[in-house]
Structure to design on (273 residues):
């Protein structure tokens, strides 16, 4: 148990790619961590290995979305602006719109694709439009992470596809969840979307917690072999909002059940069904 405030210091861009190494290698069982934070006060309610350096997988798209929302607010993007799917973007597996290189999607479709379906081609199209390349966008992402007080995170691509240099911690992911809620409260509501329609086709999302837990507001799930099953999510019981992170669960169901247990315990009454 922990009961300290989750502070968000701003640190300089020092010791980026070489100073941080993951706690697990690609061929080993992922490490495990969780943290639960009161969104209103920033207090850490419970944590296990919160500063263990692990792989984010598609939780990476939370930062891609943060920078997308920032671009929308600054006028760099508009919701109906078209983004071209490059060959590089179209090659990203497994989740993608798969409309083919040279075709376009709107910024709104890109956002919803990342939120609901974790579309890697959409994340790459955003990165290439904003920074010119995935590598340059990774540097933008890491710089913003430092601005938000994410002291142990390095981003190298916008999608979360495997890269041993791309690492994070449960503490840092909680900070990013809090920042999305604080800085983009209207856009944050999109994370509660359980599905989307794209070109007349209906799709369901991957976040079982969003479906199973009353008051769940969603944010993002992720999985690679090296990361295990990850999730960052928030939920409200009407009086209080909590943000939780689970990294390195053994299965999708295990991460959902662990998150349900955390929320139930700290809401004080069992509200899950």
């Amino acid at each position: 148990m922990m009961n300290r405030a989750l502070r968000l210091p701003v640190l300089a861009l020092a010791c980026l790619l070489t100073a941080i190494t993951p706690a697990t290698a690609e061929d080993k069982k992922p490490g495990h961590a969780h943290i639960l934070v009161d969104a209103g006060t920033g207090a850490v309610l419970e944590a296990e290995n919160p500063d263990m350096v692990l792989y984010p997988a598609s939780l990476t798209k939370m930062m891609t979305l943060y920078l997308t929302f920032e671009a929308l607010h600054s006028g760099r993007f508009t919701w109906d602006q078209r983004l071209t799917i490059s060959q590089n973007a179209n090659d990203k597996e497994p989740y993608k719109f798969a409309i083919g290189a040279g075709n376009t999607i709107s910024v709104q479709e890109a956002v919803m694709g990342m939120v609901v379906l974790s579309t890697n081609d959409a994340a790459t199209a955003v990165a290439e439009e904003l920074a010119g390349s995935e590598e340059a966008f990774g540097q933008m992402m890491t710089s913003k992470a430092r601005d938000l007080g994410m002291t142990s995170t390095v981003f190298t691509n916008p999608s979360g596809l495997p890269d041993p240099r791309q690492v994070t911690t449960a503490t840092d992911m909680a900070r990013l969840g809090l920042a999305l809620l604080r800085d983009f409260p209207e856009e944050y509501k999109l994370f509660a979307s359980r599905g989307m329609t794209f070109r007349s086709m209906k799709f369901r999302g991957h976040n079982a917690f969003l479906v199973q837990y009353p008051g769940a507001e969603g944010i993002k799930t992720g999985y690679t072999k090296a990361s295990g099953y990850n999730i960052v999510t928030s939920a409200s019981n009407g009086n209080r909002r909590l943000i939780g992170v689970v990294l390195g669960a053994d299965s999708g169901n295990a991460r959902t059940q662990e998150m349900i247990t955390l929320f139930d315990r700290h809401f004080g009454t069992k509200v899950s069904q």
Residues 33-267 form a domain with the Beta-lactamase fold (CATH 3.40.710.10). Residues 1-5, 7-21 have pLDDT under 50 and may be disordered. Residues 264 and 271 are 6 Å apart (CA to CA).
